[in-house]
Each structure stands twice: as structure tokens, then as C-alpha cells.
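Sulfonate transport system ATP-binding protein: C-alpha cells wanted.
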Amino acid sequence: MAPHAEQLTRPAVQLRGLTRSFDGHTVLDGIDLDLPAGQFTALLGHSGSGKSTLLRAVAGLDHEVAGSGQLTAPSRVSVVFQDSRLLPWQRVLDNVLLGLDGKEAERRGRAALAEVGLAGRERAWPNELSGGEAQRAALARSLVREPELLLADEPFGALDALTRIRMHTLLRELWERHRPSVLLVTHDVDEAIVLADRVLVLDEGRIGLDLTIDRPHPRSYRDPLLGEYRERLLTALGVTEHHDHHGTDGTDGTDRADDRPQHHEHAEDPQ
Ligand SMILES: Nc1ncnc2c1ncn2[C@@H]1O[C@H](COP(=O)(O)OP(=O)(O)OP(=O)(O)O)[C@@H](O)[C@H]1O
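Answer:
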């Protein structure tokens, strides 16, 4: 990045030479990355390419990676995973407040639940929520902590296609209102290009493609101009042979997530 540009956008996250290996197998191979404060970035890559490993490193959850290079991240970080990780023995509001006390925290917790569309469900138990509602509650739990950086690891990966699209709208609205820096890990090319302003492709331990998505929001899956970005990302992911299924073919695209190659072998739990 040019020096003057660096002065304009304070990076929220800065990685220099970040490396991580497991059993002699290098997963992150000297990653250099700046995430400017307030940017919405998506991270794509095949299963096993190291997306969760990178996210865990940025979250400060991986102590071994820390010494490998330079890693700077904000102190107020929230992480949302594919499963909501709500505690089943705590009611929804108590899950959202976990570790926060006092009337003011409770007021913020209720406000966060209202923001994600769960007003009135404060006293529900997690097992009374649908998958989408549970992820809404997980987002509320993140929001209430007013994170400078929101890390999301396949947060909508277990949801049906229609719920996922509703959650996309919600996440983008929350981002517009609160403006945390976001790093969203996903397998879903359409999810990445509809939500993010910048999409990174992780390939062989490096950032293989760093693409700015220069289209206004809210974006539609139907926008034919997103097709060019989709094509570039699919090419970077090595799946150009699926062009006919993913091109601008006049369908609304809402079912695309289901007819593209799936990479779920290692998608469950990044812990
Ligand atoms: N704790 C661990 N111990 C050993 N190997 C690990 C560990 N965590 C990750 N790996 C390995 O590192 C590689 C990258 O895993 P990672 O979970 O980061 O990939 P990913 O891109 O997030 O995959 P997916 O999209 O399937 O979730 C994989 O080969 C995985 O087996």
C-alpha cells in the first residue's frame, strides 16, 4: 500500500509474515494483510485452505501463531461461529449478556435483541429458537459488546438458503449502523460478493486474490454486474468449469449455494 494511503485508513488488523503449521504441514505461509478500520471483508477459500486458522489467529485464539510474525488487532473483538454456541441452560437474554452485569448492560442487551428481530424472545430458551433465530441471538451477543472487530466463521453455513439471504440483509444493516471492521469467512462466493466490499481468496497459505467489490449496497444477487466479480473469484478458486451454473443466467440466484461444489469436510467446528 502506498504510504499516503496508509495514513488515510488506520488498519484495524495488521498481519506481517504470519505463519502456521500443523504437524509439518504449512497452512499459513507468511500472510501479509491489512484490514482498514470499518471495512467489511470476506475471506474465501477451499476447505482446508486455512480460513478458520487465520480467523482464530486474528481472534487471538491461537497462541502458537503469535510468535511467527507480527499480528495487530483491536482489543474488543467478537467472534460468531457456524453454530450459535448459546448456552442451553441460559435464557436468550442471559446468553446475550453473558459476563455483563447491571441495568445498563441489560438495557443494551434488550436493544441488541430488538435490533436482530428478537424482541419478545428475551426469556426463551435456546432450544426454542430456530437455527436462524439462534444466529440472530449470537449476533446480538456480539453486538452488545460493541466490537471494533467482528470475526464471523461461516455464520450462516448451517442455515437454509432463504434464511441465509435474510441474515445477509441483517448483517449488512448491523454493519452499516455500527461500523465494526468485519472479517467474514465463507465458502459461498455469492455471500461474499453481496455482503463484502473486499473479498480475499486464501490459496496455498497466501492471499491469492484481493478483490474490491465496487458496487453500491444493498446489493442484489440478480445484479448482472456482480457476475464479473463472481467469475474472477470462481477462477481464483479453480472452479471455472461451473460457469454455466453460476453465470448471469436470469435466475434469481437464491439457490446457487446449493448447486455449487460443497466443501464441508472440515466445516463444523474450528476449535
Ligand atoms: N488444531 C489443529 N491440529 C491439526 N491440524 C489442524 C488444526 N487446525 C487446523 N488444522 C489443519 O489446518 C488446515 C486448515 O484448516 P482450517 O480449519 O483453517 O481450514 P478452512 O479453510 O477453515 O476449512 P473449512 O472451510 O473446511 O472450515 C487443515 O488441513 C486442517 O486439518
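Confidence is low (pLDDT under 50) at residues 1-8, 242-271. The chain has one domain: 3-84+152-259.

Cheers.
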